[in-house]
Amino acid sequence: MQDNDGAIAPPLTDAQWERLTARAEPLEIPAGEYLVRAGDLYPMALVEEGELELVRDAMYWLSEQVVVTFGPRSFTGDLGLLNGQRAFLSARAAVPSRVRVLSRADLRRVLAEDDELGDLVLHALWARREWMRSGPAALTLKFVGTATSREFLALRRFAERFDLVHTAVPLEPGQSLSHPAHDYAVTDLPVAFIQGEPILRATPGVVAERLGLSYEPGDEGFVDLMVVGGGPAGLAAAIYGASEGLSTVLLEAVAPGGQAAATSRIENFLGFPFGVSGGDLIGQATLQAIKFGVRVYAPCEAVSLTAGETEIEVRLSDGRAIRARSAIVASGAAYRRLGLERWDDFERTCIYYAATPLELKQVRGSPVVVVGGANSAGQAALFLSTHGCPVHLVVRGTDLGARMSSYLVDRISEEPRIHLHAGSNITALDGDHDLEAVRIDTAGDVAARALFCFIGVEPATSWLGGIDRDESGFIRTGADVALALERWQRLGREPLPFETSIPRVFAAGDVRRGSMKRVAAAVGEGSSAVASVHRVLA
Fold first, then answer.
1. Are 67 and 87 in contact (CB under 8 A)?
2. Does residue 136 contact residue 56 with C-beta atoms inside 8 Å?
3. Over the chain, what is the mean pLDDT?
4. Cα–Cα dist 14/420, whole Å
5. 3.50.50.60, 3.10.20.340, 3.40.50.300, 3.60.15.10: which CATH number matches 343-455?
6. N or C: which end of the chain has fewer CB within 10 A?
7. The organism sits in which domain of life (predicted)?
8. Can you tell me the distance from the alpha carbon of 407 to that of 410, in angstroms, rounded to the nearest whole number?
């Protein structure tokens, strides 16, 4: 293990070691005996005497391999320990060993109550996750699929947003998979291998369930706060709720991040003078949420919400239900699509609603079209052009600055690889298997390997039948809520800021009527909504 700065295996003082072991239970392990097997839920092991070795188990064509060994005064674990992920490596005693076992709940207490020790441990868990990406541990989760398929990209996006140690193997269109244990047809793709065991036609939901990232009945019981949606507003709400003592769960239909995770660069977010990618911002926020004890479940699609006198119940698409004393709806919005022939055909391979390094790998150096007139479209055009792609930016309005920040307008005007088509519309898509050209009404056909679509969103509120919404589907809150409703007369109070027409149910971010539709504003709304939650739970 290369650990030049001591981040992966930090040395602990006597006082730090004493505090870390204070809540841990002693355990003797004979040589060769396993403390944890791959696929198990696992605690943190604190080695007092002997050695624990982490082992990648044998998988068909691969023999067993010792990945790393932990000696006295060291502790095991990586970020998966905090969010309930099942172990992807086995842990066994290399020699007769004495350890102390620290439960996940007690580890969270250490992180919450001991700033010095908590920061040291959290940084080590994060550093180990980064170190494992390029080592043998990455083969314990492997995705194989057609490089341009929507299903394969969904798996990769899910793994990257959840910061999972994994390997992805892209295949050419029409190429099948030859495997030492079995040959897989194109119709079997994508295949996910977890500990060498194949899952055919894998989806993020199935993979999450196998890894322990999806919700299981009885996991949480009755919590103080349930947040639906894992974008900036939802993550901010979860972080502030949990850090202020509320037991908190976060449900996300896909993976943490929402539209923000699809943003290549945010330059006007407070505290980042050199800009920050959406992926980095969301990754740090998710880690922060987990640090404070938020249980993040994804993919978990909410399909209904009902409210009783003392509890809120959200039912999931698989029939399971989660109950809480309060809820914040931050489910964001879904991407709009252009009503063009063959959209469905190309959406599986060449139409994207995000511009991140993952999509860049599919189009690097090729001409592309970006459609949209707001910040997300401008950021995508700049990201793609600065990485070598000639970009046609198609904007329906004639004034690029009408909906886009001026710093983006200025940079776009100075970028030679961006060709702006203002006052224009896309009228047709052309190509055989893959997209080859896009027709623009003011310019004719332009060569394009891909189309990046940022034409707005529709609020993801169709599952909220009992909540008052405006004609566009955005949720009314606070002073916009009709005070004549019987429930408010019965309570004898007015709706609080961010509170919906259902008491103790709040809304924040893009889903809320009147919201600013910016990342920083969403963060502010999510954290501010928690203040109202405290008032109703007091």
1. no
2. yes
3. 91
4. 63
5. 3.50.50.60
6. C
7. Bacteria
8. 5
Pull the structure tokens for residue 493.
Answer: 């109070």
Strands 141-146 and 167-171: parallel
Q: How confident is the model at residue 4 (pLDDT cuts 50, 70, 90)?
A: very low
- CATH fold label, 222-334+458-537: FAD/NAD(P)-binding domain (3.50.50)
Two tokens, residue 417: 């690889």
**pTM score of the predicted model:** 0.83
* Element spanning 224, H or E: strand 222-228
Structural domain spans, the chain: 14-132, 136-211, 222-334+458-537, 343-455
- DSSP E strands in 229-320: the ranges are 248-251, 295-297, 302-307, 312-316
The alpha carbon of residue 374 and the mean position of all alpha carbons in its chain are separated, in whole angstroms, by 23
Closest among 267, 264, 258 to 238, alpha carbons compared: 258
Choice among 83-92, 199-208, 414-423, 484-493 with the minimum mean pLDDT: 484-493
Q: Indicate the SS3 state at residue 401.
A: helix
**Is 136-211 a CATH 3.40.50.1820 domain?**
no
